[in-house]
Sequence to fold (1016 residues):
Amino acid sequence: MAFNLTRRRFLQSASLAAASIPLSKVVSAETGFVQSPLEPKGSLKEETVTGGICEMCFWRCQLVGKKRDGRLIKLEGNPKSIDNGTSICARGNAGIKLLYDPDRLKYPLKNVGERGKPVWKRISWEEALQECSTRLKGVVDKYGPQGIAVFPHGSTAKYPMHFFERTVGTHNVSEASFFQCRGIRDTAYWATIGKAPGENVDMPNAKAIMLLGSHIGENVHVSHVKSFIKGLQNGSKLIVVDPRYSAAAAKSDIWVKIKPGTDTAFLLAIMNYLVKNEKYDVDFIDEWADGFDEFAEGIADWSFEKAAKECNVPAEQIKAVADMLADNAPNVSIHPGRHVSWYGNDFQRQRSLACLTGLLGAYYVKGGWVPGIKPKVGKTSWAKHDHGDEHNLNYNEDEELRHPYTPPGTPTELIRDAALTGKPYPIKGCVIWGQNPIQTIPGQEKMKDVLRQMDFVMCVDVMPTDATMWADILLPEASYLERYDMVKTGTQWDFSEKHQQFITARMPLVEPMFERRDNVYITNAIAKGMGHAEEIPVKTVEEMVEKNLAVAGLSLAQLKKEDGIHIRDGKDPYGVPEDFEVLLYNEDIEDAGFPGIPTYVPVDPPPAGYARLLYGRVPVHTFNRTQNNAWLNFAMPDNPVWINDETAEKLGLQDGDTVGLINSEGFKSRTTTTVKVTPGIRKDSVYMAHGYGSANPLLSVGVNAGVDDQSLITKIAVDPETGAHGMRNNFVKLIKDGKVLDIPA
Amino acid sequence: MQYGMIIDLERCVGCHACTIACKAEWEVPVEYGRNWVRRLGPSLVQGEMASTYYPGLCNHCTEPPCVEECPADYEEMTFTDPKTGETVTLEVAATWKDPFDGTVQIDKARCLGCGACADVCPYSARYVNPDLVDDMSEDGKADKCTLCKPRVDAGSLPACVQTCITNARIFGDLDDPDSEVAQYLNKGAAGIEPVDGELGPNIKYYGRKKDVDLLLGTSTPELVDVGPIRRRAMLAALGSGAKKSLRNVGLLGLAGALLASTQTKGESNDE
Fold:
C-alpha cells in the first residue's frame, strides 16, 4: 500500500499533469476539440415501446424495445409477460443485431447469374412481383398447381403457404418444423392420445422428469427452461437419456449414456417391468387405456438384460430409471421431445413415450403431461378448398397412404423424388419462404439438383442464406421487429400459481427500413398476378391481426393500451377430460401395415473406422438463422466436434485441434472446426452443433464459421409411418492435417 | 454495504443471455465483454462426470488490485451513501472502490488508457475499450462491469440479472443479513479467490459440490506479477502526460492551457 502511494506521488510530480490541470477538461486551444461522451448512457431512461414478440426462435417471448432517436438500442422481456417475464435469452437480446445487420436483404433482387452462383441485380418491387406471378402462373398453366413446391418456415410463411395450398391447390408443401423436426412427435402422440403433445409437461410440479435426447439448456426456450429449472429447484429427480453428457445431463440424477438409435428398446424394457411387476397405474389404465393386454403381451420379451445389451447400458441402470419413475408416479414428466427426426424409427419411439406416460398415469395430473388451457383467437387465412387427392404424392397407385401418419403437408422426400424423376408429375416452380432447405433437409446435393431443375425459384427471407443463393427472385421481408404478424396465446407456465391466460399480437417496434415488405403485401400481389384477386382474405397484415383478435373481443388499440399483452383469468388444467383415451395398442396403425404395439426397429451401426454423427443445439443460435449475428457469433463462433477423450488420445487429437470431417459416402466438410475432447460422449459417436458453416459469401460474419453438419448428412432415412426424415444415420471420420483418421472401435 | 452478486450454478444453464444483455445495455464492442460465460467440462471430477459454467464479471473485490495500479492523478471525489445520504470526500485516481456501495468504478474521462488495471486483474475482468478515445488516450479507456451502478442507483436491477432466464444471478447487499444474497453466503456461496490471494471477490458462486469443484479447479487464477505492469504504467503515465499536454496545449503552452481550462464551459456553450 505504502509503495503504491509513493509511486503515485512520484508519478504525479513527474508528469506534466502535476501542474494540477486535469487534462481531460482541457479543450485544445488549437482544434477546439470537445470530447465525446465516454460513458454509454444505458437504456433505462430511454423510450419504451411495447408489443414486440420475439422470433429469434419460435417460442415467441414477449418483448419491449428501448428506443433512442428512433433507433432500437435494446430489447427486453415485457415486464407484463406471464410467460418469459423480463427475461429473454441471448438470441432475444441480440435481436437488434439482426435488425440492423448490414448484410440483411434490403431490396428485391433478380439473379442475373445462375442458381447457386448468383449475380444479383436490384429491381423494383413492381418488376419483382410481376415476375414471380407470371413465372408461377406459367408453371401452373403448364404443369398444374401440383407443379409448385413450397418450403415454408416461420410465422409469416403460413399466409403464403395457405395461398399456394388452399387457393392455388398444390399438396406439395413441406414445413421443416414438421418433416425435419417435430412432426413425428405430433402424429405419434395423436395416434396414441388423440392430441399433439407440444412440450406440455408440468415440470415445475413434477417429482421426476425424464428427458430423452432433449438437451434443455443448450436448447433454450425461455419459459420452458424456467419450468425445467423450477422443477429441479422444487426437488424433482432428473433422468437424462443421451449419448452425450448434455447441459441437461449435467443436472441429472441419472445419466443414461445410451447407444444411439436404441431408445425404443430402453423404453420397452421399462414398460415391460412396470407391467410385469404391477408398478404401473392400474386404476388409470383401467379407466383410460385401450389395448393393454395386446400391449403387455407384445412387449413381454423386453427384459432389462435384453435392453441393456441393445442399448449398451447396465441393466441395473435401466431398472433404477424404471423404479425412479414408478416411485414418483403419477407426478412424472415424460418429456415428448421437440426435434425428434433422428433415425427413421422415430414414430415407434414417440409412441413408446406416449404409452409410458399412460402407464405411469401421468396425463393431466400434477407434474405430468398437462396442456394449459389457452384462450381462443381467430385464424384468418385463405379459404379452404378440396383439391382432391389425385395429385397427392402421399397416395400410391392403390390409393393407399404411403405414410399414413404424416404431419400436415407432403413428406419432403416424396416432393424431391417427384421433382427429380418427373414422376408421377413434374415439379417446376418453387417457393422458399423463411426456410433454408439447403441446411435443413438431408442430402444437400439432392436438394440442389431439385432446385436446378425448376423453371422458377423464388425466395423470401430477412437474411441471405445458403438457400437464397438458389433463387431467381429474392424478396426482402420485414423482420419480426418491423411488422404486424401473428397472435400469440398462452398461460402462466407454473400451474401451481394463479391460473391466467394471455393474448398478445406482434406489433412493430420500429418502421421497416429500405424496401422491406410484409408477407400479406407480397402474397396478395402475387395472388392478384396469378388471377386470384377475388379470394384475397385480407388487404393488410393489420387487418388479419385485427380479425384474429376480434374473436377474443380484442383489438390492436386495446392491446396497445394494455402494454402489448392482454391478461385474463385462466382455467385449472388438471383433470382427465371425459373423452380421453390412451391407445396402448392401436389397431389402425396395424391395419396400415405398421406395428400397432410400440416396436423397436434397430438401426445400422457405424461401419468400422467411423463414428455416428450426432448434432444438436447451442443456446446462442437458432440453427443457421442466427449465424450472422455479430454478438452471437462472438459468443460461439464455431461448432467444436465433441470426441471421446480415450478415442482422441488414440488418434493423437488434442482439445482445440483443427479438423475437417468426411462421411461414409465420401462427402467431405467444406470447412474446418475445432475438437472438443471430453469423457462426456460415447466412443461410437461424435457430436456437433447444427446450423454452422454457411456457404453464402453475403453473410460476412457467418460464412464458413464452423462446419455445416447438414452437408455430412447424406444418407437419407425416412420414418415409414410419417415420411419425416431421420438425420442421425450418418457416419464420419475426422481429417487432421489432410490425413483421414479412422475412429477406433 | 457491499453490493455483490450470487451466481447459482444449480440454476445456470450457460445460455449467455447475461453477456448479450450487457453488450446491448453498455454498448460493449463486439469482441469484448464486461462479463462472460465459459462452459466447463464435461470432465471427471473425483471420478464423477461433471459439467458447469463459469459466468464471470468484475468481482468488485474488497481489496481490488486494479485500483492500486492506476497511475492517473488523484482527484477529490465526493461519494454519497444511497441509504443515509451521508457523504464522504476522498482523493482517488481514475478508478476506485466506492466507500459506500463497495463497487469498483472508473472515471473514463481521467483514464489514461494504459491498461495497467486490466493487466493486473487476475480475473481479466477489465479490458481497454478501443471505441472510447479522447484527447487523453488514443488507445481507448479501461472498461468493465460497474454492477450496473447507474441502473441500480435509479432503483433498477443490473441488466444481466434482469434478463437471466432462470434467476441464476441474484444481486444485492452482501452485508445485509436479510438480503437474499446473504442467505446464499450462509449456504456456502463463495468467491473465486486467486491462489494465495486475499482480494475478497464479491461475486459468489453456489452450486453442487462437484460443479463448484470443477469451477474452482479450472478457473482459479494466479495473482499477477505487478512489477512489469507498474513499470509500464509509469512510462505510460509519463509518456501520456507529455504527449497529451503537447497536443492539447499546442503553441499556447502551459499558461494557455490553464486559460483554456478555465474558459472551456463558456466557449463550448457559445458554439
Remarks:
- Chain B touches chain A through 80 residues (CB under 8 Å).
- Residues 3-219 of chain B form a domain with the Alpha-Beta Plaits fold (CATH 3.30.70.20).
